[in-house]
DNA sequence: GCGACAG
DNA sequence: ATCTTGTCGC
Protein backbone atom coordinates (compact mmCIF):
# COMPACT_ATOMS: atom_id res chain seq x y z
CA UNK A 1 0.00 0.00 0.00
CA UNK A 2 1.53 3.32 -1.04
CA UNK A 3 0.59 6.72 0.29
CA UNK A 4 -1.51 9.07 -1.83
CA UNK A 5 0.53 10.88 -4.48
CA UNK A 6 2.52 13.72 -3.03
CA UNK A 7 2.15 12.71 0.58
CA UNK A 8 5.57 11.11 0.85
CA UNK A 9 7.15 14.22 -0.61
CA UNK A 10 5.30 16.49 1.80
CA UNK A 11 6.33 14.33 4.75
CA UNK A 12 9.92 14.49 3.64
CA UNK A 13 9.71 18.24 3.21
CA UNK A 14 8.20 18.65 6.67
CA UNK A 15 11.05 16.85 8.35
CA UNK A 16 13.55 18.86 6.35
CA UNK A 17 11.88 22.03 7.62
CA UNK A 18 11.92 20.75 11.19
CA UNK A 19 15.62 19.97 10.91
CA UNK A 20 16.64 23.33 9.42
CA UNK A 21 14.31 25.23 11.71
CA UNK A 22 16.72 24.63 14.60
CA UNK A 23 19.32 26.78 12.88
CA UNK A 24 17.21 29.91 12.56
CA UNK A 25 18.51 32.87 14.52
CA UNK A 26 15.71 35.24 15.52
CA UNK A 27 17.88 37.91 17.07
CA UNK A 28 19.96 40.78 15.77
CA UNK A 29 23.45 39.60 14.99
CA UNK A 30 24.91 42.61 13.17
CA UNK A 31 26.10 45.94 14.52
CA UNK A 32 24.11 48.00 12.03
CA UNK A 33 20.90 46.38 13.27
CA UNK A 34 21.37 48.03 16.66
CA UNK A 35 22.02 51.48 15.23
CA UNK A 36 19.05 53.90 15.32
CA UNK A 37 19.70 54.93 11.72
CA UNK A 38 21.22 51.65 10.54
CA UNK A 39 24.64 53.24 10.15
CA UNK A 40 26.99 50.65 8.72
CA UNK A 41 24.28 49.29 6.44
CA UNK A 42 25.28 49.91 2.83
CA UNK A 43 23.73 47.16 0.73
CA UNK A 44 20.29 45.55 0.81
CA UNK A 45 19.26 42.71 -1.47
CA UNK A 46 16.04 41.44 -2.96
CA UNK A 47 15.20 38.12 -4.59
CA UNK A 48 12.24 36.93 -6.59
CA UNK A 49 10.97 34.54 -9.23
CA UNK A 50 8.68 35.77 -11.99
CA UNK A 51 6.48 33.72 -14.24
CA UNK A 52 4.65 34.02 -17.48
CA UNK A 53 0.96 33.31 -17.61
CA UNK A 54 0.18 29.70 -18.20
CA UNK A 55 3.73 28.48 -17.58
CA UNK A 56 4.27 27.01 -14.14
CA UNK A 57 7.67 25.56 -14.94
CA UNK A 58 9.81 28.24 -16.51
CA UNK A 59 10.64 31.33 -14.50
CA UNK A 60 13.02 34.23 -14.28
CA UNK A 61 15.15 34.15 -11.14
CA UNK A 62 16.32 37.59 -10.09
CA UNK A 63 18.65 39.10 -7.54
CA UNK A 64 19.17 42.81 -7.03
CA UNK A 65 21.40 44.69 -4.62
CA UNK A 66 20.52 48.25 -3.72
CA UNK A 67 22.55 50.87 -1.92
CA UNK A 68 21.36 51.96 1.50
CA UNK A 69 19.96 54.44 2.33
CA UNK A 70 19.68 55.72 -1.26
CA UNK A 71 18.13 52.54 -2.63
CA UNK A 72 19.91 52.80 -5.98
CA UNK A 73 20.53 49.64 -7.97
CA UNK A 74 24.13 48.44 -7.60
CA UNK A 75 23.78 44.98 -9.08
CA UNK A 76 21.24 42.89 -10.84
CA UNK A 77 21.24 39.35 -12.08
CA UNK A 78 18.53 37.51 -13.95
CA UNK A 79 18.42 34.01 -15.26
CA UNK A 80 15.84 31.75 -16.83
CA UNK A 81 15.35 28.62 -14.78
CA UNK A 82 13.23 25.50 -14.99
CA UNK A 83 11.47 24.57 -11.78
CA UNK A 84 10.96 21.04 -10.63
CA UNK A 85 8.88 21.32 -7.46
CA UNK A 86 5.20 22.28 -7.52
CA UNK A 87 3.79 25.18 -5.58
CA UNK A 88 2.27 23.96 -2.34
CA UNK A 89 1.35 26.51 0.34
CA UNK A 90 3.77 26.02 3.21
CA UNK A 91 6.48 24.59 0.98
CA UNK A 92 7.31 27.49 -1.26
CA UNK A 93 10.99 27.23 -0.38
CA UNK A 94 11.40 23.85 -2.02
CA UNK A 95 10.25 25.40 -5.27
CA UNK A 96 12.23 28.61 -5.20
CA UNK A 97 15.22 28.39 -2.89
CA UNK A 98 17.62 26.46 -5.15
CA UNK A 99 17.53 29.18 -7.79
CA UNK A 100 17.73 32.06 -5.34
CA UNK A 101 20.75 30.42 -3.74
CA UNK A 102 22.40 30.00 -7.12
CA UNK A 103 21.96 33.70 -7.79
CA UNK A 104 23.56 34.54 -4.43
CA UNK A 105 26.43 32.20 -5.22
CA UNK A 106 27.02 33.82 -8.61
CA UNK A 107 27.24 37.17 -6.86
CA UNK A 108 29.63 35.75 -4.29
CA UNK A 109 31.83 34.43 -7.07
CA UNK A 110 31.78 37.44 -9.38
CA UNK A 111 31.26 40.48 -7.15
CA UNK A 112 31.81 39.45 -3.54
CA UNK A 113 32.17 43.09 -2.51
CA UNK A 114 28.54 43.63 -3.44
CA UNK A 115 27.25 40.93 -1.10
CA UNK A 116 24.04 42.23 0.51
CA UNK A 117 24.06 42.65 4.29
CA UNK A 118 20.40 41.68 4.42
CA UNK A 119 18.08 40.10 1.86
CA UNK A 120 14.39 40.88 1.43
CA UNK A 121 12.39 37.84 0.43
CA UNK A 122 8.99 37.78 -1.23
CA UNK A 123 7.11 35.57 1.24
CA UNK A 124 7.07 34.68 4.91
CA UNK A 125 9.80 33.87 7.40
CA UNK A 126 8.77 32.44 10.77
CA UNK A 127 5.19 33.53 10.11
CA UNK A 128 4.49 30.09 8.77
CA UNK A 129 2.70 26.85 9.66
CA UNK A 130 5.89 25.37 11.07
CA UNK A 131 7.73 28.65 11.61
CA UNK A 132 10.02 28.02 8.68
CA UNK A 133 8.95 29.89 5.57
CA UNK A 134 10.93 30.80 2.48
CA UNK A 135 12.82 33.66 4.14
CA UNK A 136 14.08 31.35 6.91
CA UNK A 137 14.99 28.65 4.45
CA UNK A 138 17.03 31.00 2.29
CA UNK A 139 18.55 32.59 5.38
CA UNK A 140 19.74 29.35 6.89
CA UNK A 141 21.09 27.97 3.63
CA UNK A 142 22.85 31.20 2.66
CA UNK A 143 23.88 32.31 6.14
CA UNK A 144 22.70 35.84 5.32
CA UNK A 145 20.28 37.93 7.39
CA UNK A 146 16.88 37.69 5.71
CA UNK A 147 13.53 39.42 6.12
CA UNK A 148 10.27 37.92 4.89
CA UNK A 149 7.68 40.29 3.45
CA UNK A 150 4.36 38.83 2.32
CA UNK A 151 1.74 40.85 0.48
CA UNK A 152 -1.07 38.60 1.63
CA UNK A 153 -1.95 37.23 5.04
CA UNK A 154 -1.34 33.56 5.56
CA UNK A 155 -3.85 32.29 8.08
CA UNK A 156 -1.71 30.27 10.35
CA UNK A 157 -1.37 29.24 13.99
CA UNK A 158 -4.58 30.94 15.03
CA UNK A 159 -4.00 34.18 13.13
CA UNK A 160 -7.15 34.88 11.16
CA UNK A 161 -8.20 37.48 8.69
CA UNK A 162 -11.35 38.24 10.68
CA UNK A 163 -13.12 41.34 11.87
CA UNK A 164 -10.63 41.81 14.69
CA UNK A 165 -7.81 41.73 12.17
CA UNK A 166 -9.60 44.21 9.91
CA UNK A 167 -10.10 46.66 12.74
CA UNK A 168 -6.45 46.40 13.69
CA UNK A 169 -5.62 47.29 10.09
CA UNK A 170 -8.00 50.22 10.20
CA UNK A 171 -6.22 51.48 13.30
CA UNK A 172 -2.86 51.78 11.52
CA UNK A 173 -2.60 55.54 11.18
CA UNK A 174 0.60 56.21 9.29
CA UNK A 175 3.59 54.61 7.64
CA UNK A 176 5.59 52.64 10.21
CA UNK A 177 2.60 51.71 12.36
CA UNK A 178 2.25 47.99 12.99
CA UNK A 179 0.56 45.37 15.10
CA UNK A 180 1.78 41.92 16.10
CA UNK A 181 0.68 38.65 14.54
CA UNK A 182 0.43 36.47 17.59
CA UNK A 183 0.20 32.70 17.49
CA UNK A 184 -2.11 30.72 19.72
CA UNK A 185 1.01 29.90 21.72
CA UNK A 186 1.50 33.58 22.47
CA UNK A 187 4.57 33.93 20.31
CA UNK A 188 4.76 36.94 18.01
CA UNK A 189 5.34 35.39 14.60
CA UNK A 190 5.53 38.64 12.70
CA UNK A 191 3.93 42.03 12.30
CA UNK A 192 1.44 43.67 9.98
CA UNK A 193 3.09 46.89 8.86
CA UNK A 194 1.59 49.92 7.22
CA UNK A 195 4.56 50.48 4.98
CA UNK A 196 3.76 53.98 3.79
CA UNK A 197 1.35 56.78 4.58
CA UNK A 198 -0.53 56.23 1.35
CA UNK A 199 -1.10 52.48 1.44
CA UNK A 200 -3.85 51.20 3.68
CA UNK A 201 -3.21 47.55 2.99
CA UNK A 202 -0.38 46.36 5.22
CA UNK A 203 2.49 44.04 4.38
CA UNK A 204 3.30 41.12 6.63
CA UNK A 205 6.84 41.17 7.95
CA UNK A 206 8.54 38.30 9.71
CA UNK A 207 12.01 37.19 10.68
CA UNK A 208 13.87 35.16 8.14
CA UNK A 209 17.26 34.81 9.80
CA UNK A 210 19.76 36.79 11.87
CA UNK A 211 17.47 39.72 12.65
CA UNK A 212 14.84 40.49 15.29
CA UNK A 213 11.18 41.15 14.44
CA UNK A 214 11.46 44.68 15.74
CA UNK A 215 14.47 45.42 13.58
CA UNK A 216 12.95 43.67 10.58
CA UNK A 217 9.89 45.89 10.78
CA UNK A 218 11.91 49.07 11.27
CA UNK A 219 14.20 48.16 8.37
CA UNK A 220 11.32 47.24 6.09
CA UNK A 221 9.66 50.55 6.75
CA UNK A 222 12.90 52.39 6.01
CA UNK A 223 13.15 50.64 2.63
CA UNK A 224 9.61 51.52 1.52
CA UNK A 225 8.94 54.23 -1.00
CA UNK A 226 5.72 52.50 -1.93
CA UNK A 227 3.81 49.66 -0.34
CA UNK A 228 6.31 46.95 -1.22
CA UNK A 229 9.87 47.49 0.01
CA UNK A 230 12.13 48.77 -2.73
CA UNK A 231 14.41 45.73 -3.05
CA UNK A 232 11.44 43.46 -3.73
CA UNK A 233 9.71 46.01 -5.89
CA UNK A 234 12.82 46.48 -8.02
CA UNK A 235 13.53 42.81 -8.38
CA UNK A 236 9.98 41.98 -9.38
CA UNK A 237 9.89 44.81 -11.87
CA UNK A 238 13.15 43.82 -13.52
CA UNK A 239 12.24 40.17 -13.67
CA UNK A 240 8.91 40.90 -15.30
CA UNK A 241 10.62 43.20 -17.76
CA UNK A 242 13.22 40.56 -18.60
CA UNK A 243 10.50 38.02 -19.25
CA UNK A 244 8.63 40.33 -21.57
CA UNK A 245 11.55 41.47 -23.66
CA UNK A 246 14.53 39.66 -25.04
CA UNK A 247 15.25 36.68 -22.90
CA UNK A 248 12.13 34.59 -22.94
CA UNK A 249 10.85 34.47 -26.44
CA UNK A 250 9.90 31.19 -28.02
CA UNK A 251 7.38 30.69 -30.76
CA UNK A 252 4.10 29.22 -29.63
CA UNK A 253 3.73 25.62 -30.53
CA UNK A 254 1.51 25.17 -33.51
CA UNK A 255 -1.16 22.57 -32.88
CA UNK A 256 -2.18 20.43 -35.78
CA UNK A 257 -5.40 18.49 -35.77
CA UNK A 258 -3.61 15.34 -36.84
CA UNK A 259 -1.47 15.39 -33.70
CA UNK A 260 -4.47 14.90 -31.48
CA UNK A 261 -4.88 11.21 -32.08
C1' DG B 1 -19.40 20.02 1.38
C1' DC B 2 -16.87 24.35 2.53
C1' DG B 3 -13.08 27.31 3.08
C1' DA B 4 -8.19 28.21 2.72
C1' DC B 5 -4.32 28.31 -0.24
C1' DA B 6 3.03 33.01 1.07
C1' DG B 7 4.45 32.71 -4.48
C1' DA C 1 2.69 33.92 -9.56
C1' DT C 2 0.05 36.29 -14.01
C1' DC C 3 -3.85 38.83 -16.75
C1' DT C 4 -5.72 43.93 -17.98
C1' DT C 5 -8.27 49.28 -18.58
C1' DG C 6 -9.50 52.56 -16.87
C1' DT C 7 -10.07 55.42 -13.09
C1' DC C 8 -9.63 58.18 -9.03
C1' DG C 9 -6.70 61.33 -6.52
C1' DC C 10 -2.66 64.35 -5.44
Structural overview:
With 261 residues, the protein is α+β, with helices and mostly antiparallel strands. The chain is 31% helix and 23% strand. The protein has helices spanning 7-21, 31-34, 92-110, 134-142, 163-170, 213-222, 230-244, and strands at 43-52, 55-67, 73-82, 118-122, 146-150, 178-182, 188-193, 203-209. It has an eight-stranded mixed beta sheet with strand order 3-2-1-4-5-8-7-6, sandwiched between helices. The protein is globular. The model is unreliable at 250-261 (pLDDT under 50). The chain binds two DNA strands through strand 1, strand 2 and helix 3. It comes from Gasterosteus aculeatus aculeatus. It holds the Pfam family Endonuclease_5.
Counted by DSSP, the helix tally is: 7
What share of residues are in beta strands?
15-25%
Could you give me the name of the CATH homologous superfamily?
archaeoglobus fulgidus dsm 4304 superfamily
CATH class wording: Alpha Beta
Overall mean pLDDT: 91
- In the CATH hierarchy, what is the architecture at level 2? 2-Layer Sandwich
Q: What's the alpha carbon Rg, rounded to whole Å?
A: 19 Å
Shape: globular
Strand order of the largest sheet: 3-2-1-4-5-8-7-6
Major beta-sheet overview: 8 strands, mixed
Helix fraction bin? 25-40%
Which spans have pLDDT < 50 for at least 5 consecutive residues? 250-261
| Strand count | 8
Element pattern in H and E = HHEEEHEHEHEEEHH
Q: What name is given to the CATH topology?
A: archaeoglobus fulgidus dsm 4304 fold
Ends distance: 34 Å
The domain count comes to 1
Pairing-aware structural class of the strands and helices? alpha+beta
InterPro entries: Endonuclease-V
Family: Belongs to the endonuclease V family.
Protein name: Endonuclease V
Subcellular location: Cytoplasm, Stress granule; Nucleus, Nucleolus
Amino acid sequence: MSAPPGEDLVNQWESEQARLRLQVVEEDTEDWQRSPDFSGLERVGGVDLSFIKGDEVNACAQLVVLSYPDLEVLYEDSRMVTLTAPYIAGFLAFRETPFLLEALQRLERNQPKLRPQVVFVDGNGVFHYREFGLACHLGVLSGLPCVGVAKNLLQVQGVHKNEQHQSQIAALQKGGDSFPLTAASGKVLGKALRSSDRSCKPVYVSVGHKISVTTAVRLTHSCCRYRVPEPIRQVAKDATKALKTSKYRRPLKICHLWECA
